[in-house]
């Protein structure tokens, strides 16, 4: 695991309230809508990659999902969610890991959600490792919800460079040979400071 990168995110979440960071959402509305579109049953295995202090896990628990994993590099981020959830945190699997290094079982997940990690992978090797992880870990017929900075979005986030994608570039990367496109679109996120951030998103289904 990259220690400087881990420390970067540890510092962010140790020194800032989750509501102060640019990616904060009071409601993870688009993500939840796309997950609902997948029509999963409550026993489905769901992972939120880079979930950190996001409220998506709260909403998934409210929807009745029983098998949720939240992965993040920063233990401090996960602790924020655990404190917020209280006893409900015991219903969630919390994983401190780098997504390009962690090992999952093949066909482990019914749905993989990522609004926070993939666009930070700017090296080709890391991007390919991510692709291998998600393709292997998703069950046949499983869903991928992916959101990144759009082609006209921010160049950096939290001081780190990001890779920007159009929806077509995301479709090309994840491969129409492996995934069917269920929905594609754009979203404008308004940061707590009132700034606009442009995102591309996809809902894909593994063949």
Automatic annotation (TrEMBL):
Its EC number is 2.1.1.-. SUPFAM superfamilies: S-adenosyl-L-methionine-dependent methyltransferases. CDD domains: AdoMet_MTases (cd02440). GO terms for molecular function: methyltransferase activity. It comes from the Bacteria. Residues 48-146 form the Methyltransferase type domain. Transmembrane segments: none annotated. This is Class I SAM-dependent methyltransferase.
């Amino acid at each position: 695991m990259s220690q400087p990168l881990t420390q970067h995110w540890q510092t962010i979440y140790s020194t800032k309230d989750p509501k102060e960071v640019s990616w904060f959402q009071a409601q993870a509305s688009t993500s939840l809508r796309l997950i609902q579109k997948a029509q999963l049953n409550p026993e489905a295995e769901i992972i939120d990659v880079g979930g950190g202090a996001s409220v998506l896990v709260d909403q998934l628990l409210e929807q009745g999902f029983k098998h949720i994993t939240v992965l993040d590099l920063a233990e401090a981020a996960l602790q924020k969610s655990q404190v917020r959830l209280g006893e409900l945190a015991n219903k969630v699997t919390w994983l401190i890991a780098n997504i390009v290094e962690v090992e999952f079982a093949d066909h482990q997940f019914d749905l993989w959600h990522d609004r926070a990690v993939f666009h930070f992978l700017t090296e080709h090797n890391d991007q390919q490792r991510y692709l291998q992880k998600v393709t292997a870990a998703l069950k046949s017929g499983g869903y991928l919800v992916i959101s990144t900075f759009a082609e006209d979005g921010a160049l950096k986030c939290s001081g780190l460079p990001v890779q920007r994608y159009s929806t077509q570039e995301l479709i090309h990367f994840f491969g129409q040979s492996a995934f069917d496109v269920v929905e594609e679109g754009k979203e404008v996120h308004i940061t707590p400071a009132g700034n606009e951030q442009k995102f591309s998103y996809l809902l894909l289904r593994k063949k």
